[in-house]
Amino acid sequence: MIASASRTPEVAGLLERLVRGDRRALARALTWIEDQQPGFEQLLHATHAGLGRAFRVGVTGPPGAGKSTLTEKFALLCRRRDQKVAVLAVDPSSPFTGGALLGDRIRMQDLTLDDGVFIRSMASRGRLGGLATTSLEAADLLEAFGFDIVIHETVGVGQTERDIVSAADTTVVVLVPESGDAVQTMKAGLMEIADVFVVNKADRPGAENLEQALTATLGLRPRADREWNPPIVRTVAVEGEGIEELAAAIDAHRTHCQESGVLIAKQRARSAERVRDLVARRIDVHVWERSGGEKILEQALERIRDGDATPYSVADEILAAVGSGPGLVRPVTEQEEGT
Amino acid sequence: MTPTVRKDRGDDGRPIVQEASTREERMAARVAAWRDRWDRQSKRDIDFTSTSSMEVAPIYTPLDLADNDPVDDIGVPGEYPYTRGVYDSMYRTRLWTMRQFAGFATAEETNERYHFLLDHGQTGLSVAFDLPTLMGYDSDHPMSEGEVGVCGVAIDSLADMETLFRGIPLDQVSTSMTINGPAIIFLALYVAVAEEQGVPPDKLRGTLQTDILKEYIAQKEWLFPPEPHLKIIVDMMAWCADHAPKWHPISISGYHIREAGSTAVQELAFTLADGFTYVEEGIRAGLDVDHFAPRLSFFWNAHNDIFEEVAKYRAARRIWARHMKERYGAKEPRSLLMRFHTQTAGCSLTEQQPENNIVRTAIQALAGVMGGTQSLHTNSMDETYALPTEKAVKIALRTQQVIAYESGVANVIDPLGGSYYVEALTDRMETEAETYFRQIEGLGGVVAGIEEGFFQRELASAASRYQEEIDARRRVIVGVNEFIEQDERLEIPILRIDPRYEREQCDRVKELRAKRDNAKYQTAMAELRQAIQDERNLMQPVLDAVRSYATVGEIVELMRDEYGTWREPSIF
Amino acid sequence: MTEQKIRVLVGKPGLDGHDRGAKVVAAALRDAGMEVVYTGLHQTPERIVETALQEDVDVIALSILSGAHMTLLPRVLELMREAGMNDVLLTGGGIISKDDMQALAEMGVGQLFGPGTATGEIVEYIENWVDNRGAKVGITS
Q1: Residues A24, C85: C-beta atoms closer than 8 Å
Q2: B108 CB contacts (<8 Å, ≥6 apart)?
Q3: How far is B565 from chain A (nearest CA, A)?
Q4: How many CB atoms lie under 10 A from the CB of residue B438?
Q5: Reduced to 3 states, what is the DSSP secondary structure of residue B530?
């Protein structure tokens, strides 16, 4: 499951423990990934062969819709089917302090002591699309570790959820009767991304109206996958009602994706995006940190103000410096510790 | 008075500065002149705000009361809208009840403390339960480990309750029991002990806290989701109205909301909103508002800012009376009275220089008395360390006695009434509370607000702001961020709860389960389950269950099984 | 790019529901740039330690106002040791006497903070502890 390659002693040690199924090593490896510590790419490279078997579910919706409770109940059902479940719960980092309060676990307490479940709270760390900067990598590691289902849980209000679509094979959008009015404004975003709709807290007044509003707008929206009509599932997550139906809807979508080739296409797109991300990230590091781009920029700001340079001429200067710096190609298997 | 002819402009067309004629105008002119002089003075560099971080003016004048009608808004005591007090004669007829909250270890030890307090002139009992009891766990439940008898007394069954009140005639004391989730069980236990003493329920005087809404908002000791809890509360209100007319089945509490970090206005508004919810639930269940409303009572915090606190109590009386009359159609004057218990603010006490807490408590107690409280608990100076020692409790009680007999404040009803400041603050609090009521209504009511985390968020941000003010020294707390004593040494004794009490209590409850008549117990429990499923009033079946020596934990477990549990929304 | 965040579990073990302090501290730690995993109320020591393990926190900060600290904190410490969490700090606050603080410190519990502590003091204590421990790299146990 875990590929071998030449690596630093720390990476080797951690990998060895991961192979043994050590949950603490998994937690630590996730920290490496989150912190993007040296060696994290080696770790992912070495575990890549373990991918391709888990199913990834995205759960999103407005605050207060009951996403965490729904996730908990769905995970409990997966456990009854003997599937191992990992949850990545994302909350936003403060753009000012970089700190974050991660409170999703409060509503997933029935999963805490089950060793077939692993929950990790992630702060978005500056990423805007609803996921954390390293959500995809974290999901890969959890998959390689042997989880059958990986759930991305994140707040979404219909603006910036593109991320979750690429991260998940099936995206579940959770709404509540109170979001009835909001459906009108958020439909553009949420309508397009949902593979399954959940009307949670369906015992409250307004559930019927919400469902009707959803059905009405669904007919009008163009979707990438024309073959699939997103079903609407009613749940009362706190009572565990409707969870079987939700699982059935997710299963149906999974089968559809497998049969129609959508799954393979999604996985391909994910790989492509991963490579693009990696290249972009490394170019960033290369340009701004390794080649001194940041320093050149700092020094140039004064000149721009004085009219001795323009943003365009400074960009040229920085890229010229990159050309003379160390090469961009640094295979992960050859990285030294501390690079 | 001769009417003056006024001219705005002189013959040359220039405005004339002339002597204002009405009293109001003359006052305005004086205030404007004073404001000029005031502006030129230097000011100390701190925030001039109330304890609740509310901006206050440097002076209040009759101008601030322009919209206040002294007859309709202030009036006289014992008369609508009761701003000045719920009774005609207040403390000249009877002083407030000095009621010290007490309970620790086992029923045996606490019973001894009650006899001690009654011997020292205390006039009412107030039971503090330990956390397992409050949360409906028996002492031998795994969740109870380390907590039995620590924060209060451990009561597992009727047997413990009999010991707790041994030698105390229940027709002669009034008893307050601070318990919420399992409140109906404790009402039944109290009734059952009285029955054994030969005292019928209609002779019982006292209060159960029972206020579950503030548990979701602040204290977090709920057992089930809000709906079944509210249903049980209506059962208790109905049963008491019929069988125990002198008993207060619920004490709608702002105390814990304030302790959790709210401002005075939030305490006022959220608590009254909770009260309105109980009234609405009662009405919805088909009860006549005048049948149960006279037995509703309140429980407020008393913090350091005397004026803010007094204004809060006065506003609460006026708002409650107005809403009960105008919104809920109560006709009985007794339905309109906001009667209340007060406790000084535990959250104001400091670990540093603990003796200073005696002074804080005295100031707070004074606020409660000047606000017209019906009963009062004063905290002991050592409560930031552990349960209070006997000496500390005695000083706290003596504080009340000094206020009652030496200070003179009990001579005059509503002594701060008519103060420009206090009247203006009272009006402002009423206005701000009304704004909150509209907001809560917009959310769909208190329960919807709880489910959405509205109250929890409001409290968390108020608590953080208060702490930030202290951290930044914009608010001075003596001994904490100013006037600090380095190498301060603790010189007050600490009361420790011997772990042996926990072992003894666990043994006792195990023995009880083995010895009781289990056939009788089974029947009573089956009947209780049936009553829950039939949605009948639960008071009678719970009474039968406690008489069969079913434990508190067993009854709660059965109810949890039927009603489910509840988890709070994360508020971050 | 590499950015190590201090991760802290803030939790309330035992039965007391007074979460004002825990929430104020959680907010203050967040404002100091830390990532705070808030567990909510009524946590058993087992849940706290398992959560800390999954979240790979640097610090476990517990608030106990019920007086059960002499039962709960040693139990958490024991479970941390069983799980090999020897690079994690156990700290907290509440109504805890100086004698008890001393006894707990001897067992290996970090500093405990009483009512009236400035949040800045707690932030500073955690930052210093993490600085002294150094970065989380491998797992040593």
Answers
A1: yes
A2: B163
A3: 9
A4: 8
A5: helix
Phi and psi at residue A55, in whole multiples of 5°? Answer: -105, 135
Question: Which two structure tokens, joined as six digits, stand for C4?
Answer: 């190590």
B215–C24 C-beta distance less than 8 A:
no
What are the residues of chain B with a beta carbon less than 8 Å away from any beta carbon of chain A? 225, 452-453, 564, 567-572
Determine the pLDDT at residue B100: 77
Alpha-carbon gap, residue C76 to C45, rounded angstroms = 5
Q: What pTM, to 2 d.p., does this model score?
A: 0.85
**Do A64 and B453 make contact, defined as CB atoms within 8 angstroms?**
yes
Look at A99 and C138 and tell me if their CB atoms are within 8 Å. no
CA distances from B501 to B138, B166, B393, B496, B551 (A): 14, 19, 22, 11, 18
- Provide the 3-class DSSP secondary structure of residue A53: coil
Residue B203 DSSP code: G
Phi, psi of B92 (to 5 degrees): -70, -25
- Which residue out of A101, A125, A277 would a mutagenesis test of the C interface target, given it has the greatest number of C Cβ atoms within 10 Å? A101
Within 10 angstroms of residue A254's Cβ, the number of other Cβ atoms is 17
Rounded Cα–Cα distance for residues B280 and B234 (Å): 10
Three-class secondary structure of residue B4 per DSSP: coil
Structure token digits, residue B352:
């540093």
Q: Which helix (H) or strand (E) holds B252?
A: strand B250-253
Asked if residue B175 lies in contact with residue B190, where contact means CB atoms within 8 angstroms, the answer is yes
- Which spans in chain A are helix H? 9-19, 23-35, 40-47, 67-80, 135-145, 162-167, 180-193, 207-218, 243-260, 262-284, 293-306, 311-324
Contact state of B568 with A68 under an 8 Å Cβ cutoff: no
What are the tens digits of pLDDT across the range B20-62?
Answer: 588 889 999 999 999 999 999 999 988 899 999 999 999 999 9
The tens digit of pLDDT for each residue in A201-231 reads 998 888 998 888 888 877 766 666 678 889 9
List the single residue in A with minimal CA-CA distance to B449. Answer: A64
